[in-house]
């Protein structure tokens, strides 16, 4: 009986010790950074802890003697471990997005679905808009996310108040045609889109969410969008 209990007791002690270490590291990181730690995990590299805090991954040891911010690369596979972990940590449930607040575009059969958060004055967003104009058989939900300037909010309100929001958005982003709306309708949706973006810790535009919940920050080429859409459909 004693011999059978010992492995179980040792396992329980190690588990408690691990949780205690994580708790102390969490407390120390929060104290130093003044931010709430969302998750903490012991990584398989150099005894470091992976700490997800303030929308980024920080690595540290059990004494929090140093805080490392940047990409961790696996020495054998040369894979970017940090990027892979960020994809998982920042993923969402697509169904949780308040899609009624977005500008909706349906092309072809509309089976491939994704959402974007974009500022109408974002240069990278305009570049990506020209790329996305070539997509077919998609449904695109564009959340107006005016965070760059007061004019961004004005343009967003004008687009939301336009008779055809999708047309107004594309004409502005691709052709530079000023939206026809006056911005004097109910623009609660724009304000709520900003609130949603902040809750999701979106700090830059464009930010894309695919149907499988994966988040991709920044403008990406058409080929990568097609690849992501295919991957999301296959899951």
Brief descriptors of the model:
235 residues, alpha+beta, Glutaredoxin, 2 domains, 7 helices
Structural class: alpha+beta
**Low-pLDDT stretches:** 4-17
Count the helices. How many? 7
Main sheet record:
5 strands, mixed
- The CATH architecture of the largest domain would be 3-Layer(aba) Sandwich
**Number of extended strands:** 9
Superfamily (CATH H level) name of the largest domain: Glutaredoxin
Order of helices and strands: HEEEEHEEHEHHHEEH
Q: Can you give the helix content as a percent range?
A: 40-55%
What does this structure look like?
This protein has two domains: 2-89, Disulphide bond isomerase, DsbC/G, N-terminal (Nuclear Transport Factor 2, Chain: A), CATH 3.10.450.70; 94-234, Glutaredoxin (3-Layer(aba) Sandwich). Helix content is 42%, strand content 19%. It is built from seven helices and nine strands. The strands form two sheets. The chain has a five-stranded mixed sheet. 26% of the residues are buried.
Q: Brief overview, please?
A:
Helices cover 42% and strands 19% of the residues. The chain is built from 7 helices and 9 strands, in the order αββββαββαβαααββα.
Furnish the topology, listing elements before pairings.
Layout: H1 2-33, E1 37-42, E2 49-53, E3 56-60, E4 67-69, H2 81-89, E5 103-107, E6 112-118, H3 123-132, E7 138-144, H4 150-160, H5 165-175, H6 188-199, E8 207-210, E9 215-217, H7 222-234
Parallel strand pairs: 6-7
Antiparallel strand pairs: 1-2, 2-3, 3-4, 5-7, 6-8, 8-9
